[in-house]
Amino acid sequence: MSKGKICLIYTGGTIGMVSKEGVLTPVRGKEFETSVLKKIPELEDIAEYKFIDLLNKDATNMHPNDWIKLSNEIHTQIKTRRYQGFVIVHGTDTMHFSASAIALALGENLNVPVVFTGAQTAFSVPHGDARVNLLRAFKVALSNIAEVVICFGDYVFRGCRALKKDERRFDAFWSPAYPPLAYIGEELIIHDKSLFRERREARAGINFVNGFSEGIIQVSLIPGLDPSFFSNLIEDENCNGFILHSFGAGNVPNEGDYSWMRFIKDATDNGKPVLITSQYPANAAYHSPYAPGREAYINGAIPTLNMTYACASAKFRWLLLQFEDMEKGEKVEQLKLMMNHDYVGELDKPQN
Ligand code: ASP
């Protein structure tokens, strides 16, 4: 039987980093090939692969233009129909943001696995996770899971549901509001095929919508944060919208000098949508059951249901670009509607 074919795209990350004067630094693609890939000959036992040297970044420096570049590359390669799957080598710091953005750009008709992986340790650490994560990602790229996923440690997560949770442990990611799609054993362990999209012969062509707005401002709420520090931004023409990274179920302070309600109303009236994300994206609710959350929505804030904050921010940029020519009121209304639309399995609709 012929081996599968995989397209391996390198963007950087610890997995290939080397220490230069005590600082971990990403290597160029050429060096990654010789110092990492050539040292894992077993990859060739799993699949034939083509190596694409796209970026060499610490993922901390990835930005929306890099997502566009990466999605374009994947899309171009998908159209050749040469590959059964893709492996994207990426740093862990923003892997969950990139995976969410790429999932949205490639859309719901994606018919091959696009597998993000990386490592907590550089390849030079003998007992580290670089080698094993790459080999596992290759296995997943040949599987039936036709989605953008993060394969890390023992798990395969839907990419737009995953978050980084640990800086050192090898189980660096989790999926707070959706079960893992598979576990890694000798074979992939899949308990429930209905959790993911499978490859299908007759799936329509890719619905490719690539592009992400600039000018998003996220404010991470802390007790006693004075909203007036930010009010000038409402008039700033380079600012396209706000994210309030809130407490609990989407709760935003609503009392006295620290109330954000006026800010939310003014920004919304000025055509700058205000999204509410949460550090705990577990419940799929249109509204917080608490007054501080409820009042934020009444003043125009947009809930993000049980999306992760990483996916919500990528989706916000993605939709804002699509709606940029609309007039203020229509833009906010459309955003409200489409943020709560499920494109690629990034959210659950509330039961009531
Ligand atoms: N700072 C690194 C990066 O995100 C961390 C890692 O890859 O684990 O590129």
Describe the structure.
The chain has 352 residues and is α/β, with parallel strands linked by helices. Helices cover 27% and strands 20% of the residues. It is built from 9 helices and 16 strands. It has helices spanning 29-35, 42-46, 64-80, 95-106, 130-141, 261-269, 291-298, 309-322, 328-339, and strands spanning 4-12, 18-20, 23-25, 47-57, 85-89, 114-117, 148-152, 155-158, 163-164, 173-174, 182-184, 188-189, 216-220, 241-246, 274-278, 302-303. The strands form 4 sheets. The chain has an 8-stranded mixed beta sheet with strand order 4-1-5-6-7-8-11-12, with helices on both faces. A 4-stranded parallel beta sheet has the order 13-14-15-16. A two-stranded antiparallel sheet has the order 2-3. Helix 4 links the parallel strand 5 and strand 6 (114-117). Helix 8 crosses helix 9 (328-339). The protein is globular and about 65 Å long. The model has no long low-confidence stretch (mean pLDDT 95). The structure holds aspartic acid (ASP). Aspartic acid binds at residues 12-14, 58-60, 91-93, 118, 120.
